[in-house]
Structure formats: structure tokens, C-alpha cells
Model the fold of this input.
Amino acid sequence: MTPIHPYADVGQPAQPEVLLVDDDEVNLLLTELALRERGFKLVGASSGEQALALLRDWTPDIVVLDALMPGMDGFDTCRALRRLPGHETVPVLMLTGLDDDASITRAYQAGATDFFVKATQWGLLAGRLHYLLRASRTRIELERSKSKLARAQDLARMGSFDWWRPERGDASGLVMSPEALRVFGFGPHEPVGLRTLLRMVPHDDRRSFLRLLHEALRHASVVATDVPIILLDGRQRIIHVEAEPEFNEHGHGAGYTGIVQDVTDRRLAEDKIRQLANFDALTGLPNRRQLIWRAERALEQARRMGHQFALLLIDLDRFKIINDTLGHGAGDEALVEVGRRLRACVRHSEQVMEGALEAAGVRSHRSLEAVGRLGGDEFVALLPEVVSEQDAERVAQRVLESLREPIFVGGQECFVTASVGVAMYPRDGASVVDLLRNSDIAMYSVKVQGKNSAAVYSPQLAGRGREKLELETALHKAIERDELVLHYQPKIDVRAARMVGAEALMRWQRGGRLVPPGEFIPLAEDTGLIVPLSEWALREAARQARQWQQAFGFAESIAVNLPSRLFERSDLVEHIHQCVTAVSVPHRMVQLEITEDNLMKDLQNVIPALHRLNEIGVEISIDDFGTGYSSLAYLTTLPISEVKIDRSFVRDLGITPQSAAVVTAIIALARSLGLRVVAEGVETLRQMDVLHRLGCGLMQGFLFSRAVPPDELRHWLEHTVLPRKAAWIGSAVQVETVDDGARLAGSIPYR
Amino acid sequence: MSLEPPIPGAPSTAASSTALDAAALARLRELDPDGRQGVLLRVLAAYETSLARMLGQLHAARDAGDAGAVAELAHKLKSSSASVGAIALAATCAEIERRLRAGAPGDLAADVARLAADGGAALGAVGAMLRP
Done:
């Protein structure tokens, strides 16, 4: 049977345990019965001594003590009970007589929680017990939450304090919780006054901190600030103080209550984050973000105050070589050293800057001056105020000068040079973005003109620089992306109406557009990319020769244009050998063309290669013949097989008599040396007729076919040449019948 | 007197001193409505034992002239007597206790004699109930 009583509430034990102490058996028995009836669990004791013995290893939820007992009375028992460990807070109800005021007072003094007048009204007693139990539970929970708070504060290195204005009298001054004392490195009960704490604030910060406190006090406003302190053991900490004013009954500020917290770690972390966000981890210089922030501020200041500021873009020359040859570790070392040297070229300011520019003095923008790293091997020097372009140029020269000494990286001396582009505000741009772009253009103009120098931006530079750089980057990737193709222009023997070979011409399929060679070959030659490009072309031409050979019995040669620098490479012969053997075609099916210009420029270096190529059966053709200043004498000694008459002479045939004279001379010379002659750029039947008449039967030009993809060339052969449908074939045949009918009979091309 | 806890059906006649107060007994019975725990008999037995012991102690206190001890015994007897319905004894105890605690000893022997007389009557009444 579960007794139901009106005082049951959540969180209370279902059956509270009561220790009842009464020397009167009748009362003990009656009270026991009555309380048990009301849901309590009773343990009776007939004397104080017996009660204390029970309490030694048991803690009831509540103790009910009869005040008057022989021997140890209720008061003595209560006092003794309070001294037992674990019973400091157990609720004790003292039973007294109704008219016994003295006992009531004595009960409280002895540590009783409450008193109750002895009577037989058990319901009232039970009610009082429930009330006490509830109060006790609330108190226990409060204690628990206080200790939790203390623990939490301890973990958070936080503590609370109260401070009362001195005029309050006794309670005035600073009262700190043990946790707050610990924040400052004091023991839990050390007497610490405000003065002691203030002395821990470093001298430089103390004055401003005091001023802040006085201000807050004067306006009774909230205090929230971080203050540095030095603990007595010398450690430096940053303490966050947050306090709210307390008001007296008149509405006047009477004091403050608040918390202190050691935020050193947080501040260090914040500083670290700010450092990482604004500075380059490798060189420690301001990073792009910080640089741009500073540049924006410098620009604002310059605009407001009407002065100029300069932005120097410093790009290291050929830095990639260091990375590629010595490794990235060495590259990083070099960047750190470069950063160190560049920093010395300006009044570099380390200050981390964010938000508003502090201390807005007229020269505050000076603190923006810095060298930073934009990324990779690109640096920027920011000069927040310059009087003239010359100021900026001087710094640029200082930068170049600073790099003249070799840098030791990876145990080795390296020479690093830089190209510097200068842009001036407001002349060269109204925004940081414009200035960066224009300094980039100026920098690029230095690169193009041979690097290791500085240039100031001018609008004339703007045109091509960046575009060219982009092209260069894209061209780098063209080979691996298979964006390059060879188109082929046939060489025609007009008398026989047959193809006697083809010239391979490179095209670049860049994003849906076919880039003509004139737009990228010069750049490829500038940058050295021409070498891999040419090597690819040789491989591709050999492959195509093989494919045609198998498809329709092609047995002539494909000519590939090579720059002279390729002839200087010792591995050219080997490379060609590999290209043709890889696809099983004879060496002679690859022909090389070199321009007369190119040949003459590097003649001495090229000749050995020509000989070796000749030995393995690769024929050499001289392109653009007649335009250079060829020493004709050399022609007799060179191992060449063919000359190609430059298109400019062909174009003017029949227009200027000189053209015909030159062409005649070339043909005569070639004949005497046993060389083939090919005329380039033949566009009209008239030109063809003239050339033919002058004795040149091999031609190339739009009249026959432009340079076309390999499949189109085959189509052209099958549908135009073989059926003899083209206009030039008729014309050629006509010429043929007049001049050299006999040769036509046996020549039927490609069947 | 007006401060004493009200004792329902307080007797005003000597006759009622020979029996236990019916209202008090009814309250005791309420503690054990179906009588299964034998509460009434247990309480009365406990009362009989302690009353007999305390009567002896009263005489000893009287012989020693210890007014304080008499007051304490009166106090004790007062509440248990009231509980079992020995109303005359409870009233006598209250009166004597109060007087003694007020520091007016008077005739200690006469007090003890009155307590012994009322106590004897109560013993008789309890005995009659325990051993009918």
C-alpha cells in the first residue's frame, strides 16, 4: 500500500528517511506511527547518545529532535550532530514546548534548521518536514550549482568580483571570488586590494587603464576592456574585465559587479590568426590581402592629401630554373633571402593593419610603406608617398642593386635578377586594381626587353604585353593538350601535273580558333618553346608520311621548317632518326627547311649538322631564298638540295622586270649547282606561266592549294589532280605541249 | 492555560478522571483504523510502562528535593498523558510544570502527591483497558 500524501513532489525521495529522537516511548511510538502513515521512513532513538551513534554511518534526510531529554538534551545533540562529517547541512527540526521561547532561540543557536511545537497534530508535523526537505534540496542544488559555476569559472580562467565605492563603509572596496584571485595568481583567501591589482598593470598601460576606469565611474557606464598585467611570478597575461554598475536606492552608482577572465591564449590565437591572414608564411612579408589593404589606404590618403604614391611590381627572372634544378626547398630559401633584401629597400613597416588606420596623424600613411609578396616569385613594394617618378625609380634601382650579390641556396651560389614595373597614382591608375595591372604591364615590358631592369608604366606599353604573356602560357600547354596540328601545302611539278612533296605548316587550334603561325611562331622562338614545338612537328610529319605511304603510296618527302637554333642542338640528327624509324619510313621522307636568314646568321654553327643530316639522307631546303644577304660562295659548299624562291619575287613577276631578273638568276645558279628550285606563293596562272617559261617547273601556292589538313590534301589529290580537273592543269599541259611534250607521256602520279 | 493545546472534550468533572478521554482514544485508533497493528494496545502498554517508571522517579525527586527534576518529569508526563487521553493527569502536569519553571516551587511533596494520585488513576484506567 503506497501512502499518498499531499506534499509529494518531483525530486524528493519517495520515502524520506527521518531520524526521530525522543526519550518518551509514548511520543516516540505515536510520532513514528503518525509519520509512517504519511509516507516517511522512521528510525527512532530514545536518547541523544543513541542518535549520534546511528548517525556515525548513516545520513537521514531529516532529523527530528526532542529539545528536552534527560542526559544529552536536544541542543547538545544538535551541536554534536553538526560536528559530524557529512551532517553539516542535514535539516534538523527541534521539537519544543509551545511557551518555550528560550528553547526556540537555543535551538537555532545549536544549529537546528527549524522548530516545531510538540503536539498531536501529525499532519502539521508532516507538512513541516516536507517543507524542510524541499528547502534542503533547494539548498543542495544551489550549493551544487555554485560549485559547478566555480569549476566552470576555474576552467575558463574566470572569476567574479564586486567593488563598492569607499563611502559605503565597511563593505567598500574590492571583493574577489577565489576563482578571480586565482586569475591573478593569488591564493583563495589572500587579501588583495584594487591597488595591488593596478600595480600589476605595466606602467605604460596603467595610466590609460585608470583613465578608462575613472570615465566609467563618472558616467556609471559598463566596463569592458582587455588589460595586460604582469603576475608576481613575472608571467605576462591579458585580462578581460567586464563589469556592470550597481545602483543604490537613489539611483546613484554604488559600485560594480563583474568578471575577470584570463584571455591571453585567446589573444595569442587571435594574433596568430591575424598574422596568418595578413602575412606570407614563407617570407613573413605582408601577403596579397594585406598589401591590397595597405594600397587601398595609401590611395585614400594620397587622394585626400593630393600627393602621389607608387606601386612597384617586382618579378624574379627565370626563377623557375632555381625550382626546377635545385628543388623547391632551395627555391623557398631563395625567396626568403630575396624577401629579406627587398625589405631593406624601403622603410618597411611590420605593423598588422586592419580596420581603421589608427593614430590619424598627417604622416600616418608612412606606416603603410612595405614590401610584400603577392605570391610565387612576385613581390610588391608600396611607396605611400613619393614626390616624383624619380623617387620610385630610385627605389626600383635599389631593388635591382640589392639582388646583385649572389644568393646561397642548396649549398650553391645563385644569381637572381628581377624585372620591376612601376605605376604611379594618380597618373597610371585611379584604383589599386588599375595600378597593379599597369605595373604588371610595365614589368612585362622589362621581361620582353631582356629582364633585370625597371620600367615605369606608359600607355604605349599597355597594348600587347599581357596578351603575349597569356599566349606564352597557353602555348606551353598546347603540345600536351594536343592543340597543335600540321597542315600541308603541296609542292607541284606543273609539267607533270603531280605532287612532288608537301610542306608541313604548323597551326594552333586554340579554343575553337585556328591561330596562324605568324601569331605564335615568333613568340615560340623568343621563349625557346620553338624547340619542343619543332620536335613535335618532326614526329608528326614522319607519322603523316607513313600514313600517306600506306594510304596511297606516297613516296616523296614532307618538309618541316626548323629554326637555326634547332640545328645547333647536338641531338637533332638522333631525334630525326628516332622519328622516322619509329614509324618505319626512310630518312629521305623528312625534309628540313631553314630560312636563308636563319642559315646565314648561324652558318658556322649550323654547317656540321647539315652535313650529318645529309649523310643519313635527310635533304635540306633553303627557304625564302633571295631575300638574305647570302654569300653565294657558301652555297657551293653547303650540303643542300633545294632552294625556294621567295614569294615576294613571284608576286612581282610580270609587274617589275627586276623580279624576273632575280628569279632567272636564282634558277641559273641553282641549275649550275645541281639544286632543285621551287617557287613559292604562286597564286595566278600568269605567274605559273612566267615561272615555267623561265625554267622553274616546281611550284607551291594558292593557285594549286593552300595548306590544308592531311585528309583534305588526299581528297584534293583524288578529286582534283588525278581527274585533271584544275584550271592550272590544262594550262600546264598546254605549256607542256609547246615546250616538253615528251616528258608528259610517262608521268601519271600516284596510282 | 489558554496557551495549552486544546484538548477536545476536556473533562470538567472528577468522574471523568477515572477513564481515558474518548476523543484522544479515537485519534489513536485513527492511526490504525482496522486495528491490525494493535496500535492502541501498544501505545497504552508503552504509556503504562513509562508512567509507572516516572511515578517512581517522581518520588525519588521529591525525596531529593529536586524541583527541576520534578518539572522535567511533569513535562514529559504531560504530553504522553495528553496523547493517551489521561486528561486530568496532563492538566496537573502542565500546571505544576509551569509553576516550577516559573521559579515558584511551593510544596514539592504536595505536588508529587497530586501527580501520584492522578497518575494512579490513569494507571488504573489504562490497566482496565489493557486487561479487561
In short: Helices of chain B lie at 22-30, 39-64, 67-84, 87-101, 108-130.
